[in-house]
């Protein structure tokens, strides 16, 4: 009895300890909300629970909200949004549940009206307002309410994504976020930016945002830039080596929700990445893979960060570099049978696979995308220069005997033998169940492209074009699509 108990307990431990680490997708949670007010309130609940001081901004005051993050961080409170004319219901509820004593209002009365301030006061909460004649002056005035900083952040005041992306770093370092414009260094921020206590400056954005002339006036400046807002956010995560164990993900063009994401990322000392609402940008994918991020919190509703993006984040193939080599091409038609040319079939399947893998979040390179010919060595070289994590060569089989049929996967033991086998074992059963063909299994063979590719590599023989049974299946768009889905899910399985 006792030993049975022990066994039972041990197997319970095994279930809890081994299963989640071994075969799990990446984990993604969401901080939701039906409006920007609700999202900010839910972020506050999750990140702070209670907060005696809260920073309050108007509905579209993204610049104010972002500049408010380092100040809110020092007060150990969140930034909440409100409707400008009347205190939003979700915001009011949040102030109550946070047990807030003081609200710091940012901006003018057109951004947060006196009516809102009176509504807050009626809740027994004291208020103060930090304003400025424009966003530049406001950013300087916010800085003056912070502890004397050892450095400052300077960003262009209308490109909100830059300020949002750097906000967690700024808050952590105690640096205020100061706004300038595209013409040069704004006079409103000059004295704060050049104060004697300031020893270093982080500039975010290229010279078309913060000019070279402005940059040269700043103290020990470092510039972080990128070709898109997604690149900038990724470069910030890399440069400051931020904790990625539960990386926050906000929508690059959703400033209210992504500024809320930046606030909680600051509070928890976590990285913040930005995404397109519909698909994960390539640079974001690559960062997820290079930083080995497996846990995320997306901020905003399913309209803000869609389930497609969440599924990409969850997929263990996210950001993995997959090289697809459609066999043969041009003068080399490969096997021919029942009206099928292998070169065309391979390309068709490869293109479908490209789409599936791309939808899954992988980064795909193909050796050819049209009816062209590459030597086997060129295919190997292209895979190597793509720095691919895995190499998949797509082929179809042929035999003089038309009764030969079925699907098989080859690997070679020269390089990455164990992982090549693992890849083959993940893909083969998925192809078979997708096509309903005979399972010819996983085999070894020294085919050139898999022998000389140094990364884990496989060569797929999807079916026999010489078989009346297989060729019918391989002519069907439905089956080719299923096949591509099957291979794609095999790839995910390999990285899981
Ligand atoms: Zn072939």
UniProtKB/TrEMBL annotation:
Question: Where is the secretion signal located?
Answer: 1-24
Q: Which UniProt keywords apply?
A: Hydrolase, Signal
Q: Which GO terms describe its biological process?
A: peptidoglycan catabolic process
* Cross-referenced InterPro entries: Bact_Sporulation_Assoc, Cell_wall-bd_2, MurNAc-LAA_cat
Which SMART domains does the entry link to?
Ami_3
Database matches in Pfam families: Amidase_3, CW_binding_2
Coiled-coil region(s) at which residues?
none
Q: Give the Enzyme Commission number.
A: 3.5.1.28
Tell me where on the tree of life, at the top rank, the source sits.
Bacteria
Q: Which GO terms describe its molecular function?
A: N-acetylmuramoyl-L-alanine amidase activity
Q: Where is the MurNAc-LAA domain?
A: 380-492
What PANTHER family does the annotation carry? N-ACETYLMURAMOYL-L-ALANINE AMIDASE LYTC, N-ACETYLMURAMOYL-L-ALANINE AMIDASE-RELATED
Q: What is this protein called?
A: N-acetylmuramoyl-L-alanine amidase LytC
Traced from the root, the source organism's taxonomic lineage reads: Bacteria, Bacillati, Bacillota, Bacilli, Bacillales
